């Protein structure tokens, strides 16, 4: 029997590979001669760099870049040595909302400049293929900070170059951008491909756009939302002139990460895709699933969103294509979840073995024991019925 473990991280507790290795221990207790593979799983958000880089035998790069408020921050990304030399980058490492305090949140002052610096560093190291995780940004600059770092020039309506008060462009500088010349882009960008993990469908501007939907949680006041949205709308027109094509700011995902989705798609030729699909493709999970007898997936919390694009649901769907049974391990089940059946999953099992607080359950050593013990019992039952 061969089992593939592809479990999403239990955020704040265990990484994807730690979850999989703990589950594998339980399998071997029940069936010592079982074959297994532990594969990384992520949805393109937090934990993607760690999961994909480690799971694919890559290396980590630590660099200092411009943070969301202009301060220097230490950012980590991954490099996988394959024919394309792939860089795995989470934009939150340079422009994340967790990098600033609650009182300092202000999308008019935050920048994505550091994201561009990370891309340039990866290009200098030979990377030509990029996996970009959008999510968790503190910004609403439509990507102008990133584009500036990559070599684009910005001008106001009087023809003066706009560089920002501190040498980098922010969300507030969108007000002044009236012309863009991407002619000075790093020439090696033309050799690069970008797969962008984007799990929201919001357009660049409008009632469901970046400013209206995500602005408030990043610090925009009610009185500022319409202003920021107006700047986004104008930036779209300026971009069409700069790129000499008609752009579609309503394309699903353009409003992701404060408009970074728009910048990646139209300025860098990025493909906006579901995060779990990118990870599954890039880690060759289909091959491992096709060769397995049983698939074990899972996540920290089972809720009504589980079947709506989360990574474990992607694994389950692929497994069913190959007619493979799927078992799901979950840290907890949301009180709002009222279903006993998850599509393409034979059964799910909460791992908590005894009453405990959330803090206790999330303690890494405890979580590993719970996962291993639950998995052991599952495969003891499987062994009994397989005889």
Short synopsis of the structure:
By secondary structure, the protein is of the alpha/beta class. The protein has 13 helices and 13 strands. Helix 1 crosses helix 13, helix 6 crosses helix 7 and helix 9 crosses helix 11.
Layout: helices, strands, pairs:
Elements: E1 2-7, H1 16-30, E2 35-38, H2 48-55, E3 59-66, E4 72-80, E5 86-90, H3 92-95, H4 113-124, E6 129-133, H5 144-149, E7 153-155, E8 179-181, E9 193-197, H6 210-218, H7 222-243, H8 260-267, E10 271-273, H9 275-282, H10 285-290, E11 294-302, H11 311-321, E12 326-333, E13 347-350, H12 358-362, H13 364-386
Helix pairs in contact: 1-13, 6-7, 9-11
**Strand-residue proportion:** 15-25%
Q: Helical region count?
A: 13
Distance between the termini: 12 Å
Largest sheet: 6 strands, mixed
Oligomer type: single chain
In N-to-C order, the SSE pattern is: EHEHEEEHHEHEEEHHHEHHEHEEHH
Radius of gyration: 22 Å
**Which blocks of ≥5 consecutive residues have pLDDT under 50?**
none
Helix content: 25-40%
Q: Find the count of extended strands (DSSP E, 2+ residues).
A: 13
Strand order of the largest sheet: 3-4-5-6-9-10
Question: Which structural class fits the helix and strand makeup?
Answer: alpha/beta
Query: Could you say which overall geometry the principal axes of the C-alpha atoms support?
Result: elongated
Provide the residue-averaged pLDDT. 93
